[in-house]
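Comment on the following before class.
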Amino acid sequence: MAIYEYRCVGCGREFDLLVLHAHVATDPACPGCGRPEVTRRFSSFAMHRSEASRLADFDVARAHDPGFYRDSRNVGLGAKKRAQRLGVDTGGRLDEIVEKARTGRFLDE
């Protein structure tokens, strides 16, 4: 089973197609205009990384684009990395604060 992404040559619409069986040939048509002239696009992918892995690779000296912090898992990485570098044992308090910031509960208090 796979999901393929296409772009219509005629109207430019982008759409996804779920293919249940790879051995079954599929000739997709644009759901917008019905034209069969479509091109297959490269799909993006994601991979799971643990917080420890992301923390190990985090560079506090490098600037991050605003999109970096749209992923709530990245909130607090800088503070955790700095504490780790300084050898500070936060006793779990920093994790508590970061979790509140990630979930938006920090603003409630």
Notes: The mean pLDDT is 85. The longest strand covers residues 2-8. The chain has two domains: 2-41, 51-108. DSSP finds three helices and three strands in the chain.
